[in-house]
Design a protein that fits this description.
single chain; alpha+beta; Serine Threonine Protein Phosphatase 5, Tetratricopeptide repeat; 7 helices; elongated
Length: 293
């Protein structure tokens, strides 16, 4: 009896060992296949990047990173998206790199890239939880809480309460460089909470838009007028010296003519530069319009 039990136990153990071996082999085969596919995608991405096909390169880098997650691959994808003129997707890949990175140097690289990208995009943080189903701009459902990098402009959130089946819409106008935090668990239409960027202020310019020139422009215009006066005086003197030299050529007369001509030209140049600088300050000196006060 004991012998049969021992044999039965040995058979069960052998069966379990065989199942574990098969499962381990299957996982190893799957991992090897994933690594091989990731390697192919990475090679395709590098080729596309070298050919300056940055959209194709970014897509292939992302495929490689999804198969075998690594922060360097996500950062390569972010660089390709940035060069392709897609700052939102580049920022998303920086976030993915930070999520899997354990290297402070790679973290710093991702943060430096985000510093360039964030002013060009909008960031939306959604809070809440079950039983809510969230769709952002008609895309697939989003699990909460989440942070999304979005293009500035108008966005629509469809919030479905799974316990009642009721839907509500939340519409947002996001500003570049802003971060808005919404608590979607509230039954009322959520409102921005922290870190919401202020509405952009309208700016106008002085001078050519009707306002008077700033003090710096007046000072430069005054200097320009003074240089014009100097140029006039020495210009008349230059003409006299020229006439005198033509009537009685002397070395001293030629020296006086050249001196007065040099002063005249220098004064005219200074007058032009001063006037141009005054106009530039007048045009580019910003003033907040009355609508922004």
């Amino acid at each position: 009896m004991r012998t049969r039990k021992r044999r039965h136990g040995a058979a069960v153990a052998a069966t379990l060992a065989t199942m574990v071996t098969i499962a381990s082999t299957s996982r190893a085969d799957a991992d090897a296949e994933a690594r091989e596919r990731a390697s192919r995608s990475f090679s395709e991405a590098k080729t596309a990047f070298a050919l300056r096909n940055f959209t194709a390169a970014a897509t292939a880098f992302e495929e490689a990173a999804r198969l075998t997650p690594h922060p360097v691959t996500w950062l390569d994808a972010a660089e390709a998206w940035e060069r392709a003129g897609e700052p939102t997707r580049a920022a998303e890949d920086c976030d993915r790199a930070l999520a899997v990175s354990e290297d402070p140097n790679l973290d710093a690289d991702a943060h430096r890239r985000l510093e360039r990208l964030v002013p060009k995009i909008a960031t939306l943080e959604l809070r809440g939880g079950p039983p809510l189903s969230i769709r952002l701009d008609g895309n697939d459902p989003v699990s909460l809480p989440t942070r999304r990098r979005l293009t500035p402009g108008h966005h629509l959130i469809l919030v479905t309460d799974l316990s009642t089946g009721n839907d509500r819409r939340v519409e947002l106008d996001l500003v570049a460089g802003s971060t808005q935090v919404l608590d979607l668990a509230s039954p009322a239409s959520p409102r921005p909470t922290e870190n919401a960027a202020p509405a952009p202020q309208k700016r106008s310019h002085r001078g050519v838009f009707g306002a008077s020139p700033p003090l710096g422009s007046w000072a430069l215009f005054g200097a320009s007028a003074m240089f014009v006066g100097v140029a006039t005086v020495f210009g008349l003197s230059t003409l006299r010296e020229k006439d005198d030299f033509n009537a009685a050529p002397t070395r001293s007369g030629l020296d006086r003519f050249r001196r007065d001509r040099l002063v005249t030209n220098a004064a005219l140049a200074a007058a032009i530069v001063s006037a141009a600088a005054g106009v530039a300050i007048w045009i580019w000196s910003p003033a907040m319009s009355s609508g922004s006060k």
